[in-house]
Write a structure and sequence with these properties.
The chain is α/β, with parallel strands linked by helices. The chain has one domain: TIM Barrel, CATH 3.20.20. The chain is built from twelve helices and 14 strands. Strand 3, helix 1 and strand 4 form a beta-alpha-beta unit.
Length: 365
């Protein structure tokens, strides 16, 4: 493959994309306190579309007025005002001939800034490892969450579907990504040490994946077959960076086989360095394992891929799309720069401190 392969047209389900470069979802806590997306966010997202990205994925958006909100000043999709705020953004992206997906999210035990409720919920009453993130206004250890009841689990599944419908039919998003990665609620159900349940939502890795599969099914039913739907999954978490699936490729086979039959259009796989072996005793990357066991799915790769040689390497491993975080933050026009051979700007970590909100300097990029 060559650099040109990054700029060939692609598709997710029935949606055509002009190239294979995607802005990864990144939490920027720049909405109003009530969760309405701001004009600053509009400028920020519009600039990525103007810079030539084939697809932009939103930051995680909370789905209900219960326990889903993860961070203070995070945007939601739970009211007419919130839907209208996102509509301003999707309209601006579309005016730049861009495409934009909504990433919908439930925090579970990792909430550190809920406008609506005190306390946290999770599959089991297990305190998360690590500490809250200060650049998202957190402090100290995570509290011990309350275990969710069966009725509450069903309500959350329905809330994911409600948020997906608001995203597509109200806010004008082109597709939906379910956030099943990085230690948030779906990942808490999926992970052995945070899910101690003995009912149908627990047990082996297939049982622990059932919550994600039910969310996918509910979202697909609500938005129909023509709207692209995907899920983002990972091994590492924001609070447990080096976590690995316990049974290596055997677990990957189960997970990817089940997701391949779940009704999603794409699988978004994120690792710190996407090209690295997924497990210590196996040479295959998570991308290669996804391609091996879910051959028909579109695969999006994320993790240190702003270097075009690495991006091409991961496409050779089986990825169809390349999602960029830090590289996109530093270069809102990365596709144009990469296509013309212009050097990329280096990522400045000061963008994410002391609070990881959108800075004035970014809006002039």
């Amino acid at each position: 493959m060559t650099t040109l392969s990054l700029f060939t047209p692609a598709s997710i389900g029935k949606l055509a994309l002009k190239n294979r470069l995607v802005v990864a979802p990144m939490t920027r806590v720049t909405a109003s306190e009530e969760g309405v997306a701001s004009d600053r966010m509009k400028t920020y997202y519009e600039d990525f579309a103007r810079g030539g990205f084939g697809l932009v994925i939103s930051e995680g958006i909370y789905i209900d007025k219960e326990w889903s909100q993860t961070y203070a000043f995070q945007a939601g999709l739970t009211s007419t005002e919130q839907v209208a705020g996102w509509r301003n953004i999707t309209d601006a992206v579309h005016q730049q001939q861009g495409r934009i997906f909504a990433q919908i999210q439930h925090s579970g035990a990792l909430s550190q800034g809920n406008y609506f409720r005190d306390g946290t919920v999770a599959p089991s009453a297990v305190r998360p490892v690590g500490k809250q993130m200060t650049f998202y206004r957190g402090e100290g250890k995570y509290p011990v969450p309350r275990e969710l009841s069966e009725d509450e689990i069903q309500d959350i599944i329905n809330s994911f579907a409600d948020a997906a419908a608001h995203a597509v039919f109200g806010a004008g998003f082109d597709g939906v990504e379910i956030h099943g990665a990085n230690g948030y609620l779906l990942d808490q159900f999926f992970t052995d040490h945070t899910n101690l349940r003995t009912d149908r939502w627990g047990g082996d890795i297939a049982g622990r994946l059932q919550f994600s599969l039910e969310v996918i099914h509910s979202v697909r039913q609500r938005v129909g077959q023509d709207i692209p739907v995907g899920i983002r999954i990972s091994q590492g978490k924001v609070n447990d960076f080096f976590h690995k699936w316990a049974n290596g490729e055997d677990d990957a086979r189960v997970v990817f086989t089940l997701l391949a039959g779940s009704g999603i259009d794409y699988l978004h796989l994120t690792e710190y360095e996407a090209w690295q072996p997924a497990f210590p005793d196996n040479p295959l990357s998570l991308i290669e394992l996804g391609r091996k066991y879910a051959p028909q799915l579109t695969i999006m790769a994320n993790g240190g891929l702003h270097d075009k040689c690495r991006a091409i390497q991961v496409m050779e491993m089986g990825a169809d799309l390349i999602a960029l975080g830090r590289g996109a933050l530093a270069n809102h026009d990365l596709p144009e720069r990469m296509a013309s051979g212009v050097a990329l700007r280096e990522f400045d970590s000061a963008i994410l401190g002391p609070i990881a909100n959108i800075k004035d300097s970014e809006l002039s990029v």
